[in-house]
Write a structure and sequence with these properties.
The mean pLDDT is 96. The strands form three sheets. This protein has a seven-stranded mixed β-sheet, sandwiched between helices. The protein has a three-stranded antiparallel β-sheet with strand order 9-10-12. The chain folds into two domains: 3-12 and 256-369, Aspartate Aminotransferase, domain 1, CATH 3.90.1150.10; 15-252, Type I PLP-dependent aspartate aminotransferase-like (Major domain) (Aspartate Aminotransferase, domain 2, 3-Layer(aba) Sandwich), CATH 3.40.640. Strand 9 (280-281) and strand 10 (289-293) form a beta hairpin. The two termini are 28 Å apart. The chain is α/β, with parallel strands linked by helices. 41% of the residues lie in helices and 13% in strands. The chain is globular, with a radius of gyration of 21 Å.
Length: 371
């Protein structure tokens, strides 16, 4: 039996999303830009899907949603075009040391173009506090980009409070948040959050890979990231990926069962600390991510041992591909804690038996080491 506990990396596609994708591929298969009946049918599905995603995100109007290929594209577009839109007002950007690589690499590109980046260090729980942003704010600050829920620790940053800091200071800076791990996990509404740009992704909420969205506040003009066609109201070129878009909307319409997922996280803390008394874990607010560590062990060794038991976890973000976590390093954790870290990601499809299998696997690994 498989026990999949790597849902922060990707989730199993839900039946509703799979059915929606199949229908878009086999029935509503026209090009949304075509003017004949099949094209108009596809256009109707496209706009219905946009409305569903907008409702789930809490946008004030569906036109604030632009479909992209993934969260990374949304992040790249928000930062590179957002900074470009504000370049005449300054070239200072505020971000953090614990962002996803899609943000980190975009910041490096902007630095090569003459921008200055202040990277804030998180507190001991992994959060970026509003006062940190206030202290770093300058007259030439034109962009602030902070992750709402950290993809490795589950730490939650109060983006609304950050927006209030910018408002109080009278700053013209755009506010972007990578909400890929927050969407349908941590409650927020785009219309009242205060962010100008919000990145989300489908495969974290039981939609297929290859679909994401960027919320662009109404009235904000961003230079297109992809050019060549008039799709997405001339904001992103390329024929819309209708199967993925329809599936994304179907996944957005499902109950996220957040409290149930949180109960699984609480159960994991209980059972894992019983099985391994020396186990360390980070206390964070996201309901679906738990970062644990068996100091003195190697994450890869534990992952391989657990995989042999049918239990699937990860050591950090899937995008790291074996490299040491820059996020855990930013928290000043001891090297032996970082090297023994595992990230657990829970979803509504997990059951208590998955937690018990993980606990038993770690207990067995510990017993074998002490023989």
């Amino acid at each position: 039996m498989e026990h999949y506990l790597d849902n922060a990396a990707t989730t199993r596609v839900c039946p509703e999303a799979a059915e929606a994708a199949l229908r878009a591929m086999t029935e509503v298969y026209g090009n949304p830009s075509s003017t004949h009946t099949k094209g108009r049918e596809a256009r109707k599905l496209l706009e219905q899907s946009r409305q569903t995603v907008a409702d789930a995100l809490g946008a004030r109007q569906p036109t604030e949603i632009v479909f992209t290929s993934c969260g990374s594209e949304s992040d790249n577009w928000a930062l590179l075009s957002g900074a470009d839109a504000m370049r005449r007002q300054g070239k200072h950007i505020i971000s953090s040391l614990v962002e996803h690589d899609a943000i980190r690499r975009s910041l490096e590109v902007l630095e090569s173009r003459g921008y200055t980046v202040t990277r804030l260090k998180p507190d001991s729980t992994g959060r970026i506090l509003p006062e940190m942003v206030s202290d770093a704010l300058r007259e030439d600050t034109v962009l602030v980009s902070l992750m709402m829920v950290n993809n490795e620790t589950g730490a939650v940053t109060d983006i609304h409070a950050v927006s209030e800091v910018l408002k109080k200071a009278g700053s013209p800076a755009l506010l972007h948040t990578d909400a890929v791990q927050a969407f349908k996990k941590v409650p927020f509404r785009a219309g009242t959050l205060g962010a100008d740009l919000i990145s989300v992704s489908g495969h974290k909420i039981h939609a297929p890979k290859g679909i994401g969205a960027l919320y662009i506040r109404s009235g904000l003009k961003l230079k297109p990231f992809l050019v060549g066609g008039s799709q997405e109201s001339e904001r992103r070129a390329g024929t819309e990926a209708m199967p993925q878009i329809a599936a994304f909307a179907a996944a957005c319409a499902q109950d996220s069962r957040t409290e149930y997922i949180r109960s699984l996280k609480d159960l994991a803390v209980e059972k894992l600390t019983e099985a391994v008394p020396e186990l360390r874990y980070l206390e964070t607010d996201a309901p679906h991510i738990l970062n644990i560590s068996m100091p003195g062990w190697r994450s890869e060794v534990l992952m391989n041992f657990l995989e042999g038991k049918g239990v699937f976890v990860s050591k950090s973000s899937a995008c790291k591909q074996g490299k040491r976590s820059h996020v855990l390093e930013a928290l000043n954790l001891r090297p032996e804690v970082i090297d023994g870290a595992l990230r657990l990601g829970f979803s509504r499809y997990n059951v208590p038996e998955d937690i018990l299998a993980l606990a038993e696997g770690l207990r067995e690994a510990r017993q074998l080491a002490h023989r």
